């Protein structure tokens, strides 16, 4: 969210030779195409590996952005020259980043809400999850620019990479596979889990 709403500012910081306004249009087009691709991906592949792979790609892109902005700001003349010559590579990396988000963490949580939550608490859990999501969106929008001014883009993207890595580890350890499973099968899974905990 923070990257999308501050796209022009980020593209200016990257030093890309493409007009930042056109870059923003490119992100919109990529997001639209990604939504179609995401629907196809989710119909063909399991939820857990899809989320793991796309989030891992996000980690790699965030690490690349952190290095790129660090090189521009603090890397010396040779690295700054390299960033000037490869600003369009950074732009392409951002587009890959948006594709990964659209297929993974951008869409998966909303899909997963309908598939993985036990039917008896689905309404309450969905409302709580969506409210929490909106709160986090608000926090990100309010803190993105102050954090950029405080720690710079390189540390901000490094922090995002750390958070994304935590997401990968959490998904790997906690997420259950729901593709192809009925609501009754999901309910039975949780019922069995609760019975094991009682024992």
Automatic annotation (TrEMBL):
GO molecular function: transmembrane transporter activity
Keywords per UniProt: Membrane, Transmembrane, Transmembrane helix
Subcellular location: Membrane
SUPFAM superfamilies registered for this protein in UniProt: MFS general substrate transporter
Keyword field contains Membrane: yes
Transmembrane segments: 21-39, 51-70, 90-112, 124-144, 150-171
PANTHER family per record: GH07001P-RELATED, PTHR48021
Protein name as annotated: Facilitated trehalose transporter Tret1-like
